[in-house]
Amino acid sequence: MSVSSSIAGFLGVFALSLGLTGAVLRYARRRLLDVPNARSSHRVPTPRGGGLAIVLALLGGEVYWRLVVGEFAVGFAVLAGGVLVAAVGFWDDHGHLSARWRLLAHLAAAALAVASLPGDMPLRLGPVSLGSGAFADFIGVLVIAWMLNLFNFMDGIDGLAGLEVVSVGASATLLLLLSLPSGGALPVAPGLLAAATLGFLAWNWPPAKIFMGDVGSGFVGYLLGCEAIATAKTGTLGLAVWLILAGVFVVDASFTLVRRMTGGQRWYEAHRSHAYQHAARRLGGHAPVDHRVLAINLLWLLPMAGFVVWNPALELPLLILAYLPLLCLAIRLRAGQPEL
């Protein structure tokens, strides 16, 4: 596929998402209003479920790639799993679905994706090899399920989750392009997801007119997790690269969860103690947090991920180095601790 056709596809997906979010907003105002409570980070009732536009726009992009190239950009089985995740999220946005059924659906979608992904390179994290058999596939399922729930945990203030998807997707596309062998196929999937999310982000930027909802947060996290495992299995981008690019979310969500579990809190209940939520209260708004996260992603994590791409033997020490300031920031912001 030519560069011009790819750019046209990305722009089309962005425009489709932009328009569809407006349509979803009209529906959500009547059926999916998120009323603030003690655990919320917003103050006025706001429609949710806008992530449905991301799902539909990306599916539209897949139709375009199928017609122009003759194959799906993401892969049919991965898309099917994504639709399952989105459907469960859409159901949960309209009412409450038990955590057990949500988890089963997430694991089923992740297993479907891992079973269908091409490549036989062993999963590695630094010097640690997870092999390429059943155990590696099991780890792949856990990675995808964790990324899926990671974005659900971190979708708590205006613009943040959408910004992270655009940042990680665009950064991964750039790194794939820079490491592309002569005559290699242009990377499409992460850029396609970034374009679909960018159209939604125009409506979700502070002050948000609509929230992503579980339908969107689960879908984008699932696809990023699938991309991480897919590129690791084909040897195009190592798992450590994705862990670095998504470092803000990985460190905040993981550290907060561990601190709540070890602190005797009800870690499975909704809360407002993530580092980004503490930061939003300290800074007096959501946009300042978004700006700082974008700066961290572009000025720190993207260069560190680039170093890993061109120095794979150093990926574990570089991953640790990338995470150290993020961990210090989480501690300083009292992640996992109740509000003062």
Automatic annotation (TrEMBL):
Cited Pfam families: Glycos_transf_4 (PF00953)
GO molecular function per UniProt: glycosyltransferase activity; metal ion binding; phosphotransferase activity, for other substituted phosphate groups
GO cellular component terms listed in the entry, alphabetical order: plasma membrane
Cell location: Cell membrane
Membrane topology: Multi-pass membrane protein
Keyword Hydrolase carried by entry: no
GO biological process: cell wall macromolecule biosynthetic process; cell wall organization; lipopolysaccharide biosynthetic process
Record keywords: Cell membrane, Glycosyltransferase, Magnesium, Membrane, Metal-binding, Transferase, Transmembrane, Transmembrane helix
CDD domains with a match to the protein in the record: GT_WbpL_WbcO_like
Cofactor(s) required, per the database record: Mg(2+)
Superkingdom classification of source: Bacteria
Binding residues for Mg(2+): 152, 214
UniProt EC number: 2.4.1.-
Primary location recorded for the protein, binned into one broad class: membrane
Ranges annotated as spanning the membrane: 6-28, 49-67, 73-91, 103-119, 125-148, 160-178, 184-203, 210-230, 236-258, 291-310, 316-335
UniProt protein name: Fuc2NAc and GlcNAc transferase
Source organism per UniProt: Methylococcus capsulatus
